[in-house]
Amino acid sequence: MTSKQRVLAAVNHSKADRTPITFDAQKEVYDLLYQRLGLHTRRELFDRLNVDTWMILPKGFEYSEAEKKKVEKTAVWGYKRKTTEYSGGTYEELIHSPLAGKDEISDIRNHPWPGSDTWDYSGFPAESKANADRAIIGTFTWGAYFIASFVRGMEDLMIDFGMRKDYADHLIKTISEISYDTLNTMLTKYGAGVDIVYMADDYCSQLGPLFSPETFKEFCSPYLRKYVDLVHKHHKKFLLHVCGSVRPLLPLIIDAGVDMLEPIQIRAAGMDPAGLKKDFGKHICFYGGVDLQETLSKGSPDAVAAEVRRLIDVLDRDGGYVLGPGHTYIQIDASFENIMAMYETGRTYGAQRKG
After folding, report:
1. Contact 139, 195 (CB under 8 A)
2. Helical H segments across the chain, by residue range
3. Can you spell out the DSSP letters for 232-278?
4. Which end of the chain is more exposed for a tag (fewer CB within 10 A), N or C?
5. Rounded distance between C-alpha atoms, residue 150 and residue 146, angstroms
6. Which is nearest to 246 in space by CA: 227, 271, 221, 224?
7. What are the pLDDT digits (tens) for 215-237?
8. Taking the CB of residue 41, how many other CB atoms lie within 10 A of it?
9. CB 314 within 8 A of CB 275
10. Could you report the per-residue pLDDT of 111-170, keeping only the tens digit for each?
11. Sheet order of strands, 53-56 included
12. How far apart are CA 134 and CA 143, in angstroms?
């Protein structure tokens, strides 16, 4: 099977020749792997690790090209982040939410929202073609809730959900309409080579959702269903990223038509792989799962290999699983040896289990 066939088989809960594999990591981890393996390109690295996916982001995904180079940078949605150093590298910290403290509907209307042409997908066809052997994952923008939490600020947005519902509704709808338009542009004009559409929309902490299923149904389900319906209309699959303890929201996410769930953070409340597979495995494909908090960062290569085998045994029973990191981006505290143990075991044991 090709990588593309392998991943799509998993999404469709059908038999593949081995468990499909995905990869993503912080820049510092890419640099470590390039150095230790003597490689120079993402394509070479993915070949070496037997990665079956290839993600494409539009230009202007979060920042314009000019803003990317700044320490303090303004995103296309208007919030600001600052590049902050830590012992292993850098990360971006939110420093300004432009609608924080602005509680009138007119404040939403007067905000300088991006046009749907902000995102440039013109490179999608060529990159899809160059990597057509893999499952192509196309990204458009983040989910409307996630963006609202940056633009409005988390504290104000949570109060909006409870006490300013008209404000929350107007804010979420404003963002989701822009996002829907750019998704439609991507799919209609540049999406021929895309197999899966990806969206991140973090609703949860490690202990549980940040708001109730009823609030999710009121504010998030409508736009999520609308996005998924559009993606399915174009005969593609929908991959949703939600970190943390998402289990209480899974019935609503599945009801919206979502095909795949990332990253399966197994140390979060309610995220035991066996229970997830038993209760939801027939309805959604799990994507990720390998623990970054303890196993990859603190365990031995043997412990990593054992955990990979366990996840394949549990989550890949009857298909419906793509092996990968359990928090999307592998961090620099994961050793080279542990990363290699994860991917070597994924390839070898994933094939044995299907044999």
Report:
1. no
2. 3-11, 27-37, 42-49, 65-68, 105-110, 124-130, 144-151, 154-163, 165-185, 213-219, 221-233, 250-255, 273-280, 297-298, 301-315, 336-354
3. HHTT-EEEEE--S--GGGHHHHHHTT--EEE---TTSTT--HHHHHH
4. C
5. 7
6. 271
7. 999 999 999 999 999 999 999 99
8. 9
9. no
10. 999 998 999 999 999 999 999 999 999 999 999 999 999 999 999 999 999 999 999 999
11. 53-56, 135-139, 196-200, 237-241, 260-262, 285-290, 321-325
12. 25
- For the record, the structure tokens of 317 come out as 């029973």
Minimal CA–CA distance to 290: which of 305, 269, 276, 275?
305
Q: Which amino acid belongs to residue 305?
A: A
Residue 163 structure tokens = 């006490």
Q: How many CB atoms lie within 10 A of CB 40?
A: 9
Q: Which residues contact 175 (CB under 8 A, 6 or more apart)?
A: 77, 113, 144, 147, 148, 151
- Global confidence as pTM: 0.97
Closest by CA position to 151, among listed 110, 201, 99: 99
Please tell me what DSSP assigns to residue 329: S
Cα–Cα dist 183/121, whole Å: 10
Helix (H, G, I), strand (E, B) or coil at 189: helix
Q: Check the CA dihedral 215-57-237-186 and report its sign.
A: positive
